[in-house]
From TrEMBL:
Protein name: protein disulfide-isomerase
Species: Orbilia ellipsospora
Family the entry assigns: Belongs to the protein disulfide isomerase family.
Pfam families xref list: Thioredox_PDIA6_C, Thioredoxin
Biased composition (Basic and acidic residues): 244-258, 405-420
Any single Gene Ontology cellular-component annotation: endoplasmic reticulum lumen
Amino acid sequence: MVHNPLVVAALSAGLLSPLAAGMYSSNSPVIQLSSKNFEEKILKSNHASIVEFYAPWCGHCKNLKPAYEKAAENLKGLAQVAAIDCDEDSNKQKCAEFGVQGFPTIKTFKPGKQYGKPIVQDYQGPRTAKGIVDFVIEQIPNHVTRVNSKTVTEFLQKNNETAKAILFTKKGVASPMYKALAVDFYDAITFAQIRDKETEALAVFGVERFPTLVALPGGDAEGVVYDGEMKKEPMSKFLSKFAKPRESKPVTEEKTAEKPSTSTTTSAPPKPTFDATIPEVPSMGAFEEQCGRKICVLIITPPVAPVLTPFEKTNAYINQAKLSFPFFQLPWASLSPQFKDALDLKESETPQMRAVSIKKGWSVEYKGDLNSHEEMEGWIDALKLGDLPKKKFAKLGSDVVTPPEPKEEPVKEAPKHEEL
């Protein structure tokens, strides 16, 4: 990343000339942003977005372009991949609002609880198409209701006059494509997913083939079974017969016509916190005793926030999940380099969560919103079903967890930027 304050200052003052007028052509799959359309395209969007803040003269930006455009192609219809030229005079103020000091700076925008004020975070992952795609997919909002045999009647009776879409599938969690469809039709069609094991719910609809998509027009109208390809475009066309997609609409219960202020959109989201009753690992021996024969879920707490307090909904589920998986907190300062390498942990200002099997030597990273009860619940369910990709690691030694020296603050390294 180019991170030279003198260059940035000179550029802002107009002392340097750009090498090119722009980097992405009108035919590029990357959405072109400006200060005029940024709010409508990104801040008010119901979709997850990733935005590159770049300068055309930046060598790292040019090197990133092929991977970024490939990511945009792979994420088409799922999330927004966009870029804004910070070298343009009309865009400089917008880039400054988001604290851009070097190029390329990449940030993700996930719709928040308040319309027009998404959760903004820096993307620090690999500067590869796969790395970008994998990360952005985890940011797609989930408006899909998981329905089972006990809740199917309630689901059908609620808002009976509005259209519903139900996917019958062998998968335990909603796919990125299905979640993206639910975003497209947010507040127009209610989306649900029923697993193949829910035999009573299947009997209500007579479904025997998986996956099967059924649309319920609403009221007394009979359901319609989709018989096309399980791809987003034809599925969207089918669902459009029952309701029209919504370009953008507040994703909150309180919907107001008042224009939201964007003055605080660059504020960092509140630090994720967890139930203070989740115990810390006192020693490697205790860790092995609890997690040697079963999966454990670890909360790696950052140096800046070692004391955690509860988030009501998230912790209500975590406390239930303890029946299946033991939960522990591990302060960042207590971890050995070996442990950090094994779990691929990087220093962070927010807590990190990993599921770990010491016996089988694998870990699974949680990439969702740490404040989202629904996303964490889906992750736990997928973990139980074995649907999540596992990262293998070598056997951990006895020095994995080492207590920090008393009264010593952890040493913070200077921020590092990925090399392209």
